[in-house]
Amino acid sequence: VFGLSSVAQVVLGKGNTGQYLSINMAFGIGVTLGIHASGGISGGHLNAAITIKECILGNLSWIKLTAYLTGQFLGSFTAAATVFGLYYDALYDYTKGNFTVTGPTPTALIFSTYPAPNVTLPGAFFTEFMATVMLVLGVQVIHDEKNNAALKGTQPLICGILVLGIGLGMGMNTGYAINPSRDLPPRVFTAIAGWGIEVFTAGHHWWWVPVTAPVLGSFTGALVYKLFIEFHNQPDEEIENKKEQRDVETS
């Protein structure tokens, strides 16, 4: 709701009631509050790409995978419906009742991501892939207790700042979906609510990229972290035990 409504305010306000920075900040705030809300229940599973990755790696059961993905889909779909209702009058006035994906007054981009006109499909795919790699690397850094993890209680805020940073640095090409459950459910809603099937055909059938690229990026980010950081870190107890063993051998 925070993220989509901020886009609506920027688009429908024609730049007078918000800027690109306000969109990024709103998504960061939404992520922060979402993790606070669900952290005690699921550990903060807001992203389908990360949820799928955790299940495939054996850290999450298939039953929980189904429950979390269902919750993510329903939450995101409901958010789109909420923002649609909240800004319906402004939408109607801005478009004269003609909800379009492209053209002089496109509004589908309020709800889901679409690639910039000057970006190729491979370039857009790579953008979503790399942005998700950075997301997963950041999440791993924030939560890795064997490393210099964030202080307890600050993780949601820092995750929100992480999303803000990704938007500020890698949002121009595609709008940084970096999450299938953030992009696909609102797209389904717009198809139902008046924008039609074009939401799935626009941008060279772009819709599948925010679904697949983040999943691949999530696995790659986890692999990179394991290879270059996690495998080289040891818990404090192991370090202390090895130090004591060396002291004994020296004696």
Fold and architecture overview:
The protein is mainly alpha-helical. It has one domain: Glycerol uptake facilitator protein (Up-down Bundle), CATH 1.20.1080.10. Helix content is 69%, strand content 0%. The protein contains 11 helices and no strands. It has helices at residues 2-12, 20-42, 48-56, 62-86, 88-95, 121-143, 155-170, 180-195, 198-205, 209-228, 236-250. Helix 4 packs across helix 8, helix 6 (121-143) runs antiparallel to helix 7 (155-170) and helix 8 runs antiparallel to helix 10 (209-228). The radius of gyration is 21 Å and the shape is elongated. 39% of the residues are buried. The mean pLDDT is 94. This is AQP7 protein. Keywords: Cell membrane, Glycoprotein, Membrane, Repeat, Transmembrane, Transmembrane helix, Transport.
Q: How are the SSEs placed, and which strands pair?
A:
Elements: H1 2-12, H2 20-42, H3 48-56, H4 62-86, H5 88-95, H6 121-143, H7 155-170, H8 180-195, H9 198-205, H10 209-228, H11 236-250
Helix pairs in contact: 1-2, 2-7, 3-4, 3-10, 4-8, 6-7, 6-10, 8-10
Shape, please? elongated
As a percent range, the share of helical residues equals: 55-70%
What is the number of beta strands? 0
CATH structural fold name: Glycerol uptake facilitator protein
List segments where confidence is low: pLDDT < 50 over at least 5 consecutive residues: none
Number of helices: 11
In round numbers, the mean pLDDT is 94
Q: Using the 3D structure, state the CATH architecture.
A: Up-down Bundle
- Fourth-level CATH superfamily: Glycerol uptake facilitator protein
Overall SS class = mainly alpha
CATH class call: Mainly Alpha
Beta strand %: under 5%
Distance between the termini: 64 Å
Could you spell the SSE succession in H and E letters?
HHHHHHHHHHH
The structural domain count equals 1
Largest sheet: none
As a whole number of angstroms, the C-alpha radius of gyration is 21 Å
